[in-house]
Amino acid sequence: MTDKESMNSPLFPLRFEKIGLAIAFSPRAEALLFEAVRIVKSFNAQLILIHVGELSESAKNDIDDLVTRAGGQELAPKIVAQAGKPVEVILDVCKQEHIELLLAGALQKENLVRYFRGSIARRLVREVECSILLITNPKKESEPCSKILVNGLAHPKTPDTVKTAIYVANHLQTSELIVADEVATNKVRVRVNDDFGLKLAERQRRLIEREENKRLQKAIKEVPCPGDLEITKQVLYGKPGYSIGHFAAKKGVDMLVMNSPDSSLGVLDRLFKHDIEYVLSDLPCDLLIVHTTKRTGHSS
Question: Which of 70, 162, 165, 218 supports an S-S bond with 34, CB 3.0-4.6 Å?
């Protein structure tokens, strides 16, 4: 079995066969479409373009011209047009078309007013019922996705997220995948006042890391991994969300993969941040949020 064939294994909880992109005539639209075409080709998927508003002959010609310039005419993308508010339209089309991965542009760092008001990308993250890839700096030129970082925290969604990251890494020809578990510093419950306390703290950290590595290894072993993909594991100590975002920036990763939020997040969640809100407020790189549905959810 080849690497590509193994990536279609039923052991993978999610497969991206329908990929959607909300198309708007903005300064970044062309670069986003270039990125979308490359991603769709990598996954051998169907491209669905979502147009908010009526699709006039002129708008359709403009979209066709963008698709041609991006080299996507052979994909014969389906254009779905619907009038309404952008977020509501995108959410409706994702449901109607059974889209499995939504692509969206996102600012790397939002200003304070935009942060609390909520951008379209932020609302989609909280409300969309499929996985979503936020692209921070879309480019017309192809750049490799060499390094992917995925969260490995102890959560029922994590095994499927790690498996999906391996699936994505293979299709994007990634060479390195880092599985990072975030452990709150208060889990090391040892007061370090002397050398003995320091030794106890180090011992407790080693025990934590051993247990976390064992748990993560179980998820990795359950799916086929391409032979040329280097997988490493890392335990991070700090506030969940903040520590993985900081680590992603430090390591220069190309994509961060995280679990979807457990609930719809609102203004209070932005005042008292959840782990994903730390990352959304200051994106270190492209962000893939894996949405685990009831149909595909991990049963552990």
Answer: 70
- CATH code at position 35: 3.40.50.620
Distance CA 149, CA 203 (A): 26
Cα–Cα distance, 94 to 87 (Å, whole number):
11
For the question of whether the overall pTM of this predicted structure is more than 0.85, the answer is: no
How do 286-290 and 131-135 pair as beta strands?
A: antiparallel
Angle of the 158-171 helix axis to the 195-221 helix axis, nearest 10: 60
Domain membership flag for residue 54: yes
Residue 235 and residue 113 in one domain: no
**DSSP reduced 3-state for 186:** helix
97 and 56 in a common domain: yes
Range of the domain at 148: 144-254
Task: Answer whether residue 43 is part of any domain.
Answer: yes
Q: Which of 211, 221, 296 is nearest to 259 (CA)?
A: 296
Residues 199, 137 share a domain: no
Spatial CA neighbour of 256 closest among 125, 145, 173: 145
Residue 150, strand partner residues: 179, 257
Residue 246 shares a structural domain with residue 127? no
List, in order, residues 6 or more apart from 254 with CB less than 8 Å away: 143, 144, 145, 146, 147, 148, 174, 285, 286
- Quote the CA–CA distance of 280 and 290 in Å, as a whole number: 14
Contacts of 221 (CB under 8 A, 6+ apart): none
Whether residue 103 lies inside any domain: the answer is yes
Each residue of 165-210: pLDDT tens digit? 999 999 999 999 999 988 776 655 545 565 655 666 666 667 666 7
**How many angstroms separate the CA atoms of 104 and 168, rounded?**
17
Q: Nearest to residue 236, comparing CAs of 247, 224, 252, 220?
A: 247
